[in-house]
Each structure stands twice: as C-alpha cells, then as structure tokens.
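Hi Q.,

Before the meeting this afternoon, I wanted you to have the L-homoserine prediction in hand. No need to reply - just skim if you have a minute. The sequence and ligand are here:
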Amino acid sequence: MTVIKAALLGFGTVGEGVYTAIQTHQSHLKKILGAEVEIVAILIRDKNKERLVDSKIRVTTDFQEIINIPDLHVIFEAIVGEEPGHTYLQQAIDKGIHVITANKVMFSKHGEQLIERSQKENVKIGFEATTAGGVPIIRTIQQLLQVNQIKKIQGILNGTSNFILTEMRNRKLCFEDALELAQEKGYAEADPTNDISGKDAFCKLMILSQLVFGEQPNWNEVEIEGITSITQEQIAEAEKRGQRFKHIAEITRVGNAIKASIQPIIVDTDHSLYPIEGVDNAIAIEASLVGKITLQGPGAGKLPTASAMIEDFVYIFQQAPIQEKILEYQSL
Ligand code: NAP
Ligand code: HSE
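Predicted structure with the ligand bound:
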C-alpha cells in the first residue's frame, strides 16, 4: 500500500484535531486516496507537555528535523503568528512538500507570495482552514463561483465573538465569563486579543479579498472595531426591539476601490446574519449570476477546523501528478 507521509506543525486545538481526524478516518482515506496516511513527525514548542501520540511519531521542537525527513509529502501548519510559520512554509514549498495551513495571521500577509512560490515549485497549498473554520468558503469561491463576478461579501468571520455575543444575550453571561467559555471550548486563540478586537476577522476578510478581487485594500484604511465595548444592557435593549448585535465583516468593490469594514452592527430579524448563533460563522456572497447565497457552519473548534484541513489534503492528493509523485517515491 502506498504511504503518504505527513507532518504536523503544532499540536494544540487544531493540530490535535488533524491527528484525530486522520486516525479516525484512516480506512475512509485509504478508500478514497488508495494510500495510507502516516503522521511521521510533530513540531511543538514545549517538550515538557504530555502528548497522547503514537510512540513511533517523532515529536520535536526542531523544524530542521522535520524538513529533512527524506520522503515527506505534506505539512499541516497549525502554529501561531506570522513567524516562524511563514519561513517554515517557504522552506517546505522549496523542498517540493505540499502545505496546508490554518494560520490566518500569516496567510493574510504572505498568502499571495506563498501561492506564487508553490506554483513555481509545482506544489499545492491549501488554506481553507484560515477562514471561517469548517465552512468550505474558500473552495466554494475557487471552484464553484468561477464565472460569477462577486460584488460583495458580508460575513460573521469570528466564532469567538459570535459565541460571546450569543452567550451574553441568551444566558446573560458577562463578557469575561463568555470569553472564558470560548477559550475552554478551543474557539478562542491562546491570546484572544485578535478575536475580540476584530483583528482576526480582518485577517480572514483580507484572505477573502485576495481570493475574490485579486488584491487587498490598504490595511490602514480598513475600519476595524471589535466587540469589547458592547454592554449587556445594550444587548438587552436591542433584544427588546427584536434586534441583535452581530460582528460583521464586509467587503465590496466600488469602482476601482475595495472598501472593507469590520464592526458590530445591530441587525433586524430580516437580516441574513440575524439567525447566526454561537460559534457559527456565515458568509453571504452577492454574485452576478447566482444572486445572493449564504454559507453557514462552525467557525472555530478542533474538529470543524480539522475538517477543513483534511478536505484540503484529500483534494490535493486526488490530483493526478501528485499521485505520480508518491509512486516515484515508492520506487526509490
Ligand atoms: P493552540 O491551541 O495555541 O496550539 C498551537 C500549537 O502550536 C501548540 O502545539 C504549540 O506548541 C505550537 N506552537 C506555537 N508556536 C510555535 C513555534 N514557534 N514553534 C513550534 N510550535 C509552536 O492554537 P490552535 O487553536 O490550535 O491554532 C493554531 C493555528 O490555527 C493558529 O494560527 C490559529 O489562528 C489557527 N486556527 C485556529 C482555529 C481554532 O478553532 N482554534 C481555527 C482556525 C484556525 P506547544 O503545544 O508546545 O505549546
Ligand atoms: N479564534 C478563531 C475564531 C478561530 O474564534 O473564529 C477560527 O479561526
């Protein structure tokens, strides 16, 4: 049986999710790929943390040990921040290793350059998990809306913010308790500043902008507001009027300019994002032929994010030239 050798960068919420998804879906993966998927190495930062992983897997803090594994086919990147993720993925691409990333801070800034580099090296890069967790928004735009011209996107792009606003309204939790719960559930980043300040939704909106318009607006001109100033009283007042606070990211092309904003908005019941609750994200797309479509689903968390990464993985390895590459390795 052919073996696809994979390494995980990061073994937190997302890395563990990918590990679990591969273990629990191994026979299905074998069936659809005709190959066994073997996780051969995991990169972490803290060697002292206990990890429940197969003893055959190399667990290391040294990326060079991973990049030098001779027949590594794919790297799943789920670490935090712009660096060292960017440098690691460049090195992987240069070695002909496919990469799949969940790291939106890194990808919003370096995505275009990494895509160009991967095209030159004839490797694939998957980034579905960077935007809206388990919702397949990237591939929907890339593959299912190729002819449609997208005019506007409006979305709830941060699961933690939506979860906090929902918990503050439904269960009357204070902001701090709702955030703590989002952290316990693995929705929030280890440092949740980006989640609650709107910066996380901003990174995702910039990734969508690059995909849809082929460019991003000037980052300094994007209005970014988070949810930290919204009080329980304001939420309750809005509810009495039949309205809800939603943290909404919006991007549209006006002439040659791209206009983007991320801010809390009070919406009425007839707004398409009004019913989006808890950790769910939703993206409403207005396109030239189809009109308006809305995709909704879990925007954060272990298995939804792993789902996005594993679907990228299968898509990449279903491409014929890559199958040939595995066979090449096999015959070495
Ligand atoms: P996490 O739980 O904090 O885990 C991060 C993992 O990365 C940990 O295993 C950590 O090592 C490792 N790590 C961090 N910096 C490292 C470095 N410099 N070198 C080597 N290892 C390093 O984070 P997470 O929630 O899994 O998120 C991972 C990435 O996915 C982030 O970029 C995040 O924005 C993105 N993401 C998260 C979600 C979600 O729902 N959580 C969804 C979509 C995308 P130690 O274990 O040793 O500390
Ligand atoms: N912290 C992020 C969120 C994870 O809450 O949406 C998914 O990108």
